[in-house]
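Researcher: Please predict.
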Amino acid sequence: MINVDRKEILRQVRDFILLLVAGFVMTALMGFYKSPRQYIVIGSFTALMWIFLWKGNSLLSNIISARINWLKAPVKSLFVLSVSSIVYTIGSILILMKFYNFLFNIDFGRSSAMIYSAVTVTVIISLFMHGRSFLQEWKQSALDSERLKRESVTARYESLKNQVNPHFLFNSFNVLTNLVYEDQDLAARFIKQLSEVYRYVLDTRERELVTKEEELKFLESYLFLQQIRFGENLKVTIELDHQHTWFPPLVLQMLIENAIKHNIISSEQPLHIKIYFDNDFVVVENHLQKKKVLAEESVGVGLNNIRMRYEFLTDKKMQVEALPDKFVVRLPVIENVGTV
């Protein structure tokens, strides 16, 4: 069902009425008529000219503003709008004069003066539309910036809660308890890697981005802990050698942890996770072998957290795809932090 904005319809009707009245009032004041019939004809021509100039240029301004961002390219936007407005104005006035000449046999002997006047009016209208569009874009940009700042604060808070995951810490201590009795050297390495994980959490809690090398070094420590827990039942393949990118801290770890939390991991059903580049995305995918009952409550905080962080950092969208046999997350490549 079409959603009709009654206020917008009333506003448009009001504008058309005002422009019609303005056309007839201007005709009366200028006195370019010798009879009532001539007054109606010339008055309607003037009113239509006003409607063409005002409404047509307004529509033209909206179309151009939708395609060219005033804040990013103000000079280009002004140039395109000015040229388009002048071409549209001259064309519409010439067509309107031809139409009235055909219907009423009116001789527009001073057509050049009329066109000059119309172009002058158009320039004034264009300046008004340019100023209005710029202010609207600036206001929307300010609102979007404030919204993203609030989302970033929320994302940082949720990220910190996810980073210090009590279930991960509890599982790590359980593994460590067994290692202390079985293999003290391995237990010592386990403690060192666990300390590296939480040192990274503390070191990056105020940073928006880290390098690929930093994230992968941290991931190595994290996966060491998980391999002690799951052994060969957890297989992670990382192929990120040939391209440069930056990451929001702990994004890859959160996605791996998400896969571990939601899927069965056993000798009969080992879990395969693959991380690789695909065009302008870093892809994290795993085979689907869902647990019937989750040991931890799943509220979708992790994926929403990552999505909000990427929306704050880049215009490119994170993509999530749940296929019958695998779960795929595509993270936009961030190559230049100067553009963030």
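Model: The longest strand covers residues 271-278.
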